Amino acid sequence: MTIIGIIALINLILTVSLIFIERKKPEEMLTWIIILWTVPIVGFIAYLIFGGTITIKLSYWKRNKDLCKGYLEVLNKQLQEIKAFNINKGTEKFKELLPMIQFNLKNNESLLLENNEATVITSGEEKYKLLFEDIRNAKESIHIEYYTIHPDRVGEKLIKLLEEKAKEGVEVRIIFDGIANIATKSKFYEKLIKDGGFIRKFRLWGLGTNFRNHRKIVVIDGKIAYTGGMNIGEQYANGHKRKNPWRDTHVRLLGESVGILQYYFIKDWFYLSREGNVQIDVENLEKYFKYKETKEILPIQILTSGVESKESNIKMAYCKMINTAKKRICIQTPYIIPDDIILNALKTAAASGVEVNLMIPLIPPSFLLKAVSDYYIDELIKYNVKVFQYKGYIHAKTLIIDDYLTCIGSVNLDIRSLELNNEICTLFYDDKFTIGYYDIFKEDLKNTIELNYELFNNRSYGRRIVESILRILAPII
């Protein structure tokens, strides 16, 4: 059989997989079938890099099956408790939120965690001060997972600190995305590994290269956790040459939520470890779950999506949250490139009288992202969505629903985050917390310019054509 014949046979198998196994959206499925059969060789290579999902997901589910077993027992117990309405019984606001909580529990296996404390962090300087101090005080373990760890002043400070802790006998583990950190030389981690630290890269090349690990998780001694929108680098502390001032959001957590973040870190570590080289004592996992007891009541659910998800869990949760809003929706995102489901949910909310406020940066992330975002902004302003441009660079990924629900995480409002990336976000079901973050949002508004809709609508036809063409790339940028 010729090479062309072999590729044609493989493409036929991929086509069958697309239709009967992967069950992609009709438009995406049709696009891939056309590509596979009009340009077979290029289509085959492109599909391996950007299209295939099922083999990646199957390998993840297989590796984590044993780890999930104990968690599912806890999950099923809480599902029964929620059905019996045994949590926060009698709270009127909770009764309103119950469908949302139950949805996330069933769809995302996301436990409701009531005993938590949260500190909202809105600058890189503040985050690194707190984070580095907590790392200095670590006694047992430091687990770090970031999309990018830049080899700059901040990154070097972190690695040097981790080297010191590893020498002291503290267990140090780092996960980072292979593609996002491709320019970082292995020498950057050489001494840390020599001192006893462990490193894992999330996929570099090969099948499923289009997947990215965009999560931000730090767990220290199983007692303190960090998650949100910031990676490690000078730019998050106003060190970027062009994108200044830089505005971001992160949270420092104590309480039950720390255990769940630890759980997700260990799941990711297992997935990235070859059999026999896990370097975690599977029989003694309890030592990683020592979260501090807290008397504070702050109900939280932590959601994930990506390789381990059978569905687009976070996207479905975002759609549910948007549809739940009765009064107000406030969004912060560096760019907006939603799929039709989220786009139509926002349009429907705005058309129904819900105040929808969208905050994006005045300084564009890039020409490509700016052009595609403008296409969707044009769609949204027709429905009276208010768009505010932050005078600097807003990198926060947050969502506020009315006065009772706040979402803070790693999720950009784009198709990549909603459909492909490994992402994580935290939902806070609390009036006080939400009003507090809405106050931060209103403070941010003082440093914005509301989009001039008349000027925006006068964009040239050439610009509009470019936006429409580049929109085709939305699923992969």
Task: Provide an overview of this structure.
The chain is an alpha/beta fold and 477 residues long. The chain folds into three domains: 3-52, no CATH class; 113-301, Endonuclease, Chain A (2-Layer Sandwich); 313-473, Endonuclease Chain A (Endonuclease, Chain A, 2-Layer Sandwich). It is built from 17 helices and 19 strands. It has helices spanning 3-22, 26-38, 40-51, 54-63, 65-83, 92-108, 124-136, 153-167, 187-194, 256-271, 313-324, 340-351, 367-381, 415-420, 431-445, 453-457, 461-470, and strands at residues 113-121, 141-146, 171-177, 198-202, 217-220, 224-228, 246-247, 250-255, 297-305, 328-332, 336-337, 355-361, 386-390, 393-394, 398-401, 405-409, 413-414, 423-429, 448-450. A 15-stranded mixed beta sheet has the order 4-3-2-5-6-8-1-9-18-16-15-10-12-13-19, sandwiched between helices. Helix 1 runs antiparallel to helix 2 and helix 6 (92-108) packs antiparallel against helix 11. The longest helix has 20 residues, at 3-22.
